[in-house]
# Entry
Amino acid sequence: MKHFIFILFLNVFLMLPAQELPPIEKFTASDYGGDNQNWMISQGADNYIYAANNKGLLEFNGSSWVAYPSPNNTILRAVNVIGDRIYSGCYEDFGYWLKDEKGLLNYTSLIPKLKEANINDDQIWNILDLGEWVLFQSSHALYFFNKETGVFKIITSQQIIYKVFNLNNHIYYHVANEGVYLIKDGQPKLIISDAVVLEDRVINMFFVDDVLRILTRNSGFFHVKNNQLEIWDISANERLKRLNIFNSIKLEDNSFVIGTISNGIVKISNTGDFEYVINQKLGLSNNTVLALFEDANHNVWAGLDNGINCINITSPIQTFIDYEGVLGTVYSTIIYKDLLYVGTNQGLFYRPLKSRDEAFSFVEGTAGQVWSLYNHNNESLICGHHLGTFSVDGNQVEKISSDLGAWNFKKIPNHDNLLLQGNYDGLYVLELKIKLGRSGIK
# Structure
């Protein structure tokens, strides 16, 4: 047996971006039989997924897609499943779809019920469920349809209606150059005319801890106090201000998923801390997110400028993809003393197990092919390497054998201090010895 002295190496950190992300299932236009862009997503009681696509309505049963052409061959922008009806809206038309005895969808337009009113040269952008009523939002009007009586109530606006929100069965909507309105006793009431809502767009509104929060396109999160906006002091806000936010949802666990133009998806915790970003470089099909939806199983569906993605946000399995190619090909991984070690053809890397944001660091002295990693009785971490065998202690290594190519390690029965090692040229036996109060393989 050869004996080697412990050598302390100066640790030089090679920083790699942490990219542990939830699994993503991707669907392309050829998969679902529609166009690239998808504008709104909903789900039925049977768990079928519906998407408003440029070419029409898409239906997904969990296995296969069916595409239905838009009623008037225009872009379908809105869809919402309410009861047994799939309500949808497009250019100059809105209505609902019902399944026939064969399970196929048939469309009924609600435009004839408008009578003297019209929707000329306008687009339906959103559909909300209000119990007895269904709300269709266009650029200049809110159409309230009573499902029981079939009558309409309409609120119009000279300025563009950016977005409409249902908070605890109260309707709020943002009007360009005017502010945020609340519909009270059937009439709109201007409640927020702060400079922020005049100069920026309101992307979403939420109640968090019984406080009304507002997310804007370019100015981050605010909360409402005495009908005035105050910045919500959360750590993610400064980062959000650098993004062009297009939509967002609050998940059932009260965390946030935010969709952007050109920057993919951002995940924010329920306390307002930045968690991670998923963009095209990190596995998303496209960086422009047109729609977000949380399904019954807590998956997040993203309607993209090019495709549809389903993100398993709650998956216990996370995916790390080394897009920069610095880590190389992974041959072995192990968790040892709360550190995650990764052995690759480039060497040995490590990072704290529970730190998603911390980068992988290179263990100096291990450049080259790592074949295996072995935890010996929680006393020693052994690294099998092309250049020999190393004992690993945190970010430091000691070379304990120069025999090339340590492929694998196996326990020898009834000999806890011995290991059988497979090398390029045969078998070796390693013996654990105590030296200077520390254990080491010799």
User: Anything to note?
Assistant: The first helix runs from residue 29 to 32. The CA atoms of residues 176 and 246 lie 16 Å apart. The radius of gyration is 29 Å.
